[in-house]
Amino acid sequence: MNRCEACVYYIYDDQEECYSCMVNLDEDEMYRFLTKTQQSCPYFRLNDEYGLVRHQN
């Protein structure tokens, strides 16, 4: 599993029948992503379904 698959923004699109990132990158961010000059995604948020429950305890 890569890091994108664990992100909250990585959503299944029923129309396209595939997963895709729902973050809208601007032109500079898209360039860094495509050229792999950025080490990690600045928008990554762990898709932790139990995080809210742990926080409430």
Q: Could you walk me through the main structural features you see in this protein, from its secondary elements to its overall organization?
A:
This protein has 57 residues and is α+β, with helices and mostly antiparallel strands. The chain has one domain (3-52). The chain has two helices and two strands. It has a two-stranded antiparallel sheet with strand order 1-2. 0% of the residues are buried. The model has no long low-confidence stretch (mean pLDDT 83).
Task: Based on the model shown, name its key terms.
57 residues, single chain, 2 helices, 2 strands, two-stranded antiparallel ribbon, alpha+beta
Write the layout of secondary structure elements.
Layout: E1 10-13, E2 18-21, H1 27-35, H2 51-56
Antiparallel strand pairs: 1-2
> What strand order characterises the main sheet?
1-2
| Helix fraction bin | 25-40%
- How many individual β-strands? 2
The assigned structural class equals: alpha+beta
CA-CA gap between termini = 30 Å
Overall shape: it is: globular
Low-confidence stretches: none
Counting DSSP H or I runs of 4 or more residues, the number of helices is 2
| Count of discrete domains | 1
Order of helices and strands: EEHH
Roughly what is the average pLDDT, rounded to an integer?
A: 83
In this structure, how is the largest beta sheet organized? Answer: 2 strands, antiparallel
Radius of gyration: 14 Å
Beta-strand proportion = 5-15%
